[in-house]
């Protein structure tokens, strides 16, 4: 089998109203945009991968064709070597590797998770918020998620005094599993500069979480490359420390592991590693007593890829993006069937490959 072509589509979906993600400070996001890549083969099998995007998009279909045409999509390691070159001089290309596994799974007649020796299983999902909201609104949000069947919620914070919101939610829901994300690992600088935390800020906040109690983890309280700072913080507090969603490549995760920086590794297959290397990171973490719970907040194609990885490696939780108006129908708009949870649990698709279908109309409308 050989790759015969690459097609790129810039997809855009308008939200009913803007929302204000913590990772784009001061920016009212009103659209969901992504770059969808379609990898064609001489066997008539097509694979899909996708990355987040922005207004105007980022066009790199032509160089990808030069790198990929004529390659056997089963040669994942060889193609990853070529994608390393793309990573060196252009955009991160790890989402392209998703499309290879989509093709391989379709060729084998198996979902991707089965290619890694796993069976279908239910994964508990936590509702992942994306905004800063006052305590009363966040309590209403949590009540809605519990009514929908979720047993866990992740709160966003950007300032140390947001501990009051965490405390209020904990007091209102003493048995709820809570995660907290500080979003200090990275930010998109469009409107405002992000608020950064010093080590002292992160330590103060983490100790407050220890006092609140019952918090599953504190996510990205420091910059994503501050391996030693994370190690110091992890040694000083009881709450688990998580991170790595947007680090670039498996070597960063070796640093996290070797320096004892994290309790929970979170590489997003669409952003940080691709599928195979995400599994490698999970196995490396397992060998060192660490958990693996990847970031999934990109789009439904990336969600599918991460869900297969989580199934393959036995992740205890799945991040489920939910911050109305950012709802599953928004982040799944490009699929025939979206990713609705079932009473707070999710399962990887059972169809071959990634198990997703892109309607023809979605591609036609993209032009």
The CATH class of the largest domain turns out to be Alpha Beta
Identify the overall geometry: globular
**Helix coverage percent:** 25-40%
Rg computed from alpha carbons, rounded to a whole number of angstroms: 20 Å
Number of distinct helices = 14
Query: Do you know the CATH topology of the largest domain?
Result: TIM Barrel
Output the helix-strand order.
Answer: EEEHHHHEHEHEHEHEHEHHEHEHEH
> What is the CATH architecture descriptor of the largest domain?
Alpha-Beta Barrel
Q: Please report which band the strand proportion falls in: under 5%, 5-15%, 15-25%, 25-35%, 35-45% or over 45%.
A: 15-25%
What is the SS-derived class?
alpha/beta
Mean pLDDT: 96
Low-confidence stretches: none
Cα-to-Cα separation, first versus last residue = 28 Å
- CATH homologous superfamily of the largest domain - what is it? Enolase-like C-terminal domain
Major β-sheet, in short? Answer: 9 strands, mixed
Total domain count = 2
Oligomeric state, counting identical vs distinct chains: single chain
What is the count of β-strands? 12
Organism: Natronomonas pharaonis (strain ATCC 35678 / DSM 2160 / CIP 103997 / JCM 8858 / NBRC 14720 / NCIMB 2260 / Gabara) (Halobacterium pharaonis)
Keywords: Magnesium, Metal-binding
Domain Mandelate racemase/muconate lactonizing enzyme C-terminal: 135-240
Pfam family, one: MR_MLE_C
Short description:
The mean pLDDT is 96. The protein contains 14 helices and twelve strands. It is an alpha/beta fold and 367 residues long.
């Amino acid at each position: 089998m050989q790759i015969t072509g690459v097609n790129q589509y810039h997809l855009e979906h308008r939200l009913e109203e803007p929302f204000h993600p913590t990772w784009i400070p001061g920016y009212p996001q009103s659209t969901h945009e992504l770059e969808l890549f379609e990898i064609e083969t001489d066997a008539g099998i097509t694979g899909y991968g996708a990355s987040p995007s922005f207004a105007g998009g980022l066009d790199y279909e032509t160089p990808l064709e030069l790198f990929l045409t004529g390659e056997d999509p089963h040669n994942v390691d060889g193609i990853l070597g070529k994608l390393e070159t793309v990573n060196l001089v252009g955009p991160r290309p790890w989402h392209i590797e998703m499309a290879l596994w989509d093709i391989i799974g379709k060729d084998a007649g198996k979902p991707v998770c089965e290619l890694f020796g796993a069976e279908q299983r239910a994964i508990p999902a936590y509702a992942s918020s994306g905004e800063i909201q006052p305590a009363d609104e966040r309590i209403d949000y949590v009540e809605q998620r519990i009514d929908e069947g979720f047993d866990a919620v992740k709160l966003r914070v950007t300032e140390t005094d947001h501990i009051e919101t965490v405390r209020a939610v904990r007091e209102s829901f003493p048995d709820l599993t809570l995660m907290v994300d500080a979003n200090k690992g990275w930010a998109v600088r469009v409107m405002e500069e992000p608020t950064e935390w010093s080590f002292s800020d992160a330590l103060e906040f983490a100790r407050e979480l220890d006092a609140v109690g019952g918090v599953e983890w504190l996510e990205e309280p420091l910059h994503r490359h501050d391996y030693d700072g994370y190690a110091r913080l992890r040694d000083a507090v009881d709450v688990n420390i998580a991170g790595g969603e947007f680090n670039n490549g498996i070597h960063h995760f070796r640093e996290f592991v070797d320096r004892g920086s994290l309790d929970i590794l979170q590489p997003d297959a669409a952003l940080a590693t691709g599928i195979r290397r995400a599994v490698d990171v999970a196995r490396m973490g397992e060998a060192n007593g660490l958990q693996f719970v990847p970031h999934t907040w990109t789009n439904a194609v990336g969600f599918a890829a991460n869900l297969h990885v989580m199934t393959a490696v036995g992740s205890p939780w799945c991040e489920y993006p939910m911050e109305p108006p950012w709802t599953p129908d928004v982040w799944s708009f490009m699929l025939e069937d979206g990713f609705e949870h079932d009473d707070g649990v999710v399962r990887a698709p059972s169809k071959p490959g990634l198990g997703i279908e892109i309607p023809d109309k979605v591609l036609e409308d993209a032009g």
